[in-house]
Design goal:
25 strands; 20 helices; five-stranded antiparallel β-sheet; alpha+beta
Length: 628
């Protein structure tokens, strides 16, 4: 092949190579430009377009938030004596990861630190780091042993709780120490009961269980009045605030970074209707009566006639405020129901007068045994009652037979309504947590129960129910829903009173005024003629009724194994101010409730009337006759 031909071929391949090379070069250059454009786009996107979001994410990463809860409001009695309060405390936590960097606490700037130094047997300083170095300094400040502290200070975390309710002195000591940067101190609160012996079970308890990390639940009432008034006491919807700050790489707060604070709204101070002085006296009396009668338990309830306010709700074996025992026990007066017994005869008698079926002096002939038209047999508690008694005598002698004969004109179909009218068969309307509901027998084919309901059997009620029924009689037939909470103090110190905490209608005319008044007058007869002489109060007229009812039915033996004694009275009878109910379960040293329980009634009634400086009664001369 000639030289010229080789040159032509060579030039041809060179041209083709150059052409492909140029194409590749352009392709590489294009890819480079594309890659460069992407890089620039990403940078622009992050630096310009998404800069705000990036800053936001970074802030969120560095941000820390301490939750602030409102201070729970106080609970005070009717005289503003504090029964429950909230005290400021401090929660102390460690940063174990940051603590790992702590060292040479024994020697600082060439000088030994005296008592902070750990030395060996030759009196040479032992230089330690981390938890072992910081624990000996921290231990005497927060009063926790080094052995207990070290495991908590060696965790691989930025948060380790050490002490939940530190005092102000502990807080100051830690802040003044050189180890303070390694610990966080946040404000918290603790619930205390300055007068723990007063109504601890009824006051209830709060819960403040921990959530994750350093966040806590706000104080929340879980029983008693603490639960009943929880919204008011806790601060409502704005009870939670926070402090937001920036953290450094080791979790420490950056002192120059901005801090955002949202303050919570503190709870209101709630004022009760309870009078602590009378409450304590009632607790002392009922506890003594329980011991005298070897009873299972006892209750005293005192209610203002004209307002419905509960002045005292005392029980035996009272728990100390804020304790586990206060959580485990139930407020008996609200949560325990039983057959009220003969105190219900007063409601039956008032209904008879209201319907025009009887008058206080209407005569009845009674006997110990009685068989009704359905063949059901009944008898009175004792065989020695007079045979000729009036309606006032039916109450004074507490005759079951006389009650049934007097109420013969009330159809069976209407007898349940007598008691429903007085809020039996439902709750009292107080809305106390776990309040028991009054029950009325449900078997309409049980003809016997339609008779026994007239004298407080085949029906259950709490002590509050029984007292509330007498409040209506004492208040000219107007029943007022019982109340425990009188009102609250707002943040500005202004006091707001409200009659009913639940917002329901609280006043109802349940029976005619004349029927109520005549019933109260009849109830005085039992005291005047000596049937209930132990319930008398010096210088004051008393209208009262006792009751003894069976309880704790055992289906195996088809009989009751317990009994409930009660004594409910109105003082002063001529100008009713208070209804007082005294109740004892299984009083064992007396057959009937009138004598032992009546004495307890007399004692607490006299104390209550003297406490409020109640004027003496005007003597009564025109008592209704109880026999004919």
């Amino acid at each position: 092949m000639s030289t010229s031909l080789n040159s032509i071929i060579k030039n041809k391949y060179i041209k083709q190579y150059n052409k492909y090379f140029t194409i590749k070069l352009y392709l590489v250059f294009f890819l480079f430009l594309t890659f460069f454009a992407v890089i620039v786009g990403v940078v622009v996107n992050y630096k310009v377009i998404n800069a705000e979001n990036i800053i936001k994410v970074a802030d969120e990463y560095r941000s820390a938030k301490n939750i602030l809860f409102a201070k729970r409001g106080d609970i005070v009695d009717s005289n503003n004596i504090t029964l429950a309060t909230t005290e400021k405390r401090y929660s102390i936590s460690a940063d174990p990861i940051y603590i790992k960097t702590f060292n040479k606490y024994c020697v600082l700037e060439g000088e030994e630190k005296g008592n902070n130094c750990i030395k060996d047997s030759d009196d040479n300083p032992i230089l330690k780091i981390g938890a072992e170095a910081i624990a000996p300094i921290l231990s005497p400040i927060i009063n926790i042993s080094e052995e207990e502290l070290i495991p908590k200070l060696e965790l691989d975390t930025h948060y380790s709780p050490l002490l939940k309710y530190a005092t102000k002195d502990i807080k100051r000591s830690l802040e003044d120490s050189k180890i303070s940067p390694y610990f966080s101190i946040s404000e918290t609160h603790i619930r205390t009961y300055p007068n723990p012996e007063i109504a601890g079970t009824m006051l209830g308890v709060i819960s403040s269980e921990s959530l994750n990390k350093n966040e806590e639940k706000p104080m929340e009432g879980i029983t008693g009045i603490e639960k009943m008034a929880n919204y008011d006491l806790s601060g409502g919807e704005n009870m939670q605030g926070y402090i937001q700050y920036q953290r450094g790489g080791n979790g420490e707060q950056i002192p120059t970074a901005p801090i955002k604070t949202v303050e919570p709204v503190d709870g209101n101070k709630v004022k009760l209707t309870i009078n602590s002085h009378i409450q304590m006296k009632a607790q002392e009396i009922i506890e003594r009566k329980k011991e005298e009668q070897n009873a299972d338990w006892g209750v005293i309830v005192i209610q203002e006639v004209k307002t419905g306010k509960l002045v005292a709700v005392a029980q035996t074996d009272e728990a100390m405020g804020g304790t586990d025992e206060a959580f485990l026990k139930k407020p008996i007066a609200f949560t325990t129901s039983f057959e009220p017994g003969s105190t219900c005869k007063a409601i039956t008698a008032a209904t008879l007068i209201d319907r025009g079926l009887a008058a206080p002096t209407t005569p009845y002939t009674v006997s110990y045994n009685y068989t009704d038209e359905n063949g059901n047999e009944y008898h009175d508690a004792v065989e020695t009652l007079p045979n000729h008694i009036t309606l006032a005598g039916v109450l004074a002698y507490s005759s079951n037979v006389g009650t049934m004969k007097a109420a013969a004109g009330i159809p069976f179909s209407q007898r349940k309504e007598i008691f429903r009218n007085f809020r039996f068969g439902t709750t009292t309307g107080l809305d106390f947590p776990e309040e028991a509901t009054s029950l009325i027998f449900s078997d309409d084919h049980d003809t016997r129960s339609f008779q026994t309901i007239l004298f407080g059997q085949a029906i259950t009620a709490t002590a509050i129910h029984s007292v509330s029924g007498f409040q209506a009689l004492a208040n000219n037939g107007v029943q007022i829903t019982p109340s425990l909470i009188d009102g609250h103090y707002l943040a500005d110190g202004i006091y707001e009173e409200y009659k009913d905490y639940s917002g329901k209608v609280i006043e109802r005319q349940v029976i005619a005024a004349h029927a109520a008044q005549e019933t109260v007058s009849m109830l005085e007869s039992g005291i005047h003629y000596g049937v209930y002489r132990t319930g008398a109060v010096p210088n004051y007229r008393v209208a009262a009724k006792s009751g003894t009812a069976q309880m704790d039915y055992d289906p195996k033996i088809r009989d009751y194994t317990g009994k409930m004694g009660s004594f409910v009275g109105i003082v002063p009878a001529d100008n009713p101010e208070y209804v007082i109910g005294v109740f004892l379960k299984n009083f064992r040293n007396s057959r009937f409730a009138g004598t032992p329980i009546g004495a307890g009634f007399s004692e607490i009634a006299e104390f209550t009337l003297e406490t409020y400086s109640t004027p003496f009664s005007t003597p009564k001369t025109d008592y209704y006759p109880i026999t004919w």
